[in-house]
C-alpha cells in the first residue's frame, strides 16, 4: 500500500482529499502546518507528499527546500497561487509537480498515479548507467560523481537517466516532457529548462549537458 503525506491547513480540503485517496487504497497521513509536515516527512518514509504552498509556521516552499537537502520523496504542490513565477519557484526548489486549486480530484489522482508509476518503472530496472565520472545505480536510485553521492529530486533523477540512456543523442524538450512528466505542461513554465539548470548546478562539470539551440539537450 502506498503511503502519502498530505500537508494542508484547510480542513475541508484536507478531509476531502484524504477521503478520496483512502477510497482509492492509499494510506494517508495529514499535517496542518509546515513545521509538523516537515518533521513528519523527515522522520518517516512516504511514497509521495502532497504539499500546500501557503501553510502556517513554515510555508510549502521552505518545507520543500529543506526536505530536498536530505530526501528525494516525490512532491506534488497544491496551491491557490497560479502565477507562472509561483510554479517556477516550486519547481526550482525541488517539487516534482504542481496543481492549482481548485482542482478536480480525478486530475490529482491521475497525477499521483503517473508520478508513482514513473518512479516504480525506474526502480524495476536492475542495471547501471555510466558517463565519464557519473554512475547511476538504477536499482538503488543512487547517483555518484567521483564516488560521491549526488542528491537529486525525483524529476532531476529521471531527467539525468533519460540523458544518460541516450548519450550523444539530442533529446527535444517535447520528448523529455513526454517521457518524464507524461503530460503537457504550460509552455511558458519552461519546466525542462528549469530542471536542466538545477541538474547542471548539482554536477561538478556542468558542461556535460549541452544545449542544442531551438531543439533540446544532449549529454556527450
TrEMBL record:
Q: Which domain of life is it from?
A: Bacteria
Q: Which residues bind DNA?
A: 126-220
Q: Where is the signal peptide?
A: none
Task: Give start and end of each Response regulatory domain.
Answer: 3-116
Recorded hits in InterPro entries, A to Z, give: CheY-like_superfamily, OmpR/PhoB-type_DNA-bd, Sig_transdc_resp-reg_C-effctor, Sig_transdc_resp-reg_receiver, WalR-like, WH-like_DNA-bd_sf
KW Transcription regulation (keyword) present:
yes
Q: Using the record's annotations, give every residue carrying the modification 4-aspartylphosphate.
A: 52
Q: Where is the OmpR/PhoB-type domain?
A: 126-220
* UniProt KW keywords: DNA-binding, Phosphoprotein, Transcription, Transcription regulation, Two-component regulatory system
The keyword Phosphoprotein is assigned to this record: yes
- Which SMART domains does the UniProt entry name for this protein? REC, Trans_reg_C
- What's this chain's function? May play the central regulatory role in sporulation. It may be an element of the effector pathway responsible for the activation of sporulation genes in response to nutritional stress. Spo0A may act in concert with spo0H (a sigma factor) to control the expression of some genes that are critical to the sporulation process.
Protein name in UniProt: Stage 0 sporulation protein A homolog
Q: Which organism is it from?
A: Terrisporobacter mayombei
